[in-house]
């Protein structure tokens, strides 16, 4: 007798700045799972969620939430309290990966290069004076710099700073999304994203995606077709292509991630690979990088996602 198809509850939406992206990710994954014979329901993250899951009792919850509650482990903690298995990284490792300064430190200790950086809480500017603090940055790290929220995704609040006069505006933009800024040395080179999946036989890297934009790879460039060109696999030498895959797996394992992740990195002119950040809930929209990479590797998305579900249920 054929075993019954697992019932999966996809979580999408929430109240973060990335709500629209999450809804699109949830819709695409639900469609793919249904095409592979999986029974799927889609739920927003609101006051109705806990009663709905309590009544439904799905076999598995797949959070496709971007932003704080979706990636900092808190929603996963709540699902665990309900006693329902969750696809992906556990809450503790999610919290580590969600903090860019912490994840950079962990991955650097695993032997991977990452651009030099400092973290600056907004409160520090009030205590020490913004002018004094900003005056130290380009002297310490040099220019250009990248200013980004210490927690967050979809390039919201991220700025490339090429002159000292651009720093104040960049900090204001950053603090609109987080109370702590990560300021790191900008590395020139090829921007690459490598997704990692684990369907039960250990984490493996999918083909790297090279990202080419007509400007910064910001929110608009990520989710509105036309501004960004993607090359999958990336136009890298064979040895560098192998290395970026190795770095993605090292980051995945060093941070204790599970089932799925995406690592963003820069390859400089000398072929050095620089770790930037990792995402435990990669976007799954029609322009997102993981689906592009999976399809380039020859995967049917429905079957790949089904394998991730089954592997999560068997572990």
The run of helices and strands is: EHEHEHHHHEHHEEHEEEEHEHEEHH
CATH hierarchy, class of the largest domain:
Alpha Beta
The whole-number mean of residue pLDDT values reads: 91
Helical run tally:
13
- Gross geometry: globular
What is the quaternary state of this protein? single chain
Structural class: alpha+beta
Helicity level, as a percent range?
40-55%
The CATH topology of the largest domain: D-amino Acid Aminotransferase, Chain A, domain 1
Features:
315 residues, alpha+beta, Rossmann fold, D-amino Acid Aminotransferase, Chain A, domain 1, Dna Ligase, domain 1, 3 domains, six-stranded antiparallel β-sheet, four-stranded antiparallel β-sheet, 13 helices, 13 strands, 40% helix, ATP binding, nucleotide-binding, metal ion binding
Explain the overall architecture.
- It is a single chain.
- It is built from 13 helices and 13 strands.
- With 315 residues, the chain is of the alpha+beta class.
- The protein folds into three domains: 82 residues, 3-Layer(aba) Sandwich (Rossmann fold); 130 residues, ATP-grasp fold, B domain (D-amino Acid Aminotransferase, Chain A, domain 1, 2-Layer Sandwich); 69 residues, ATP-grasp fold, A domain (Dna Ligase, domain 1), CATH 3.30.1490.
- Strands 8, 9, 10, 11, 12 and 13 form a six-stranded antiparallel beta sheet that branches. It has a four-stranded antiparallel beta sheet with strand order 4-7-5-6. The protein has a three-stranded parallel beta sheet with strand order 2-1-3, with helices on both faces.
- Strand 12 and strand 13 form a beta hairpin.
- The mean pLDDT is 91.
